Amino acid sequence: MFRRKTRSAAREVRKPRLYMVALRAAFFTFLVTLLSFAVGLLLGIVGVLVYAYVEKIKPDMRLAYLDVAAPFAVVVGLVVLVLTVAMEIKHYRQSKTLGGIERAG
Known about the structure:
The protein is mainly α and 105 residues long.
């Protein structure tokens, strides 16, 4: 009575866009860098407080930001950027190939 559409018939094939590779990579890198900065700052604050308590000195919270969180976030951001760009290019090439096969068939 009712005819169900198959999954391939219901889905339209879209061509992958190269500019979306850079956009997705930049967005994901920004999010992970922001998260790593927050985690690095938290660990830096804890480290500075422990160090100040052990040495019986006044804690200098600038060290948590300047010497721990910022370098940590930069390193993590660069690693994530390289890995994300590589992964997105691989995904782009795979989608392009599979889309061509699907359009041909």
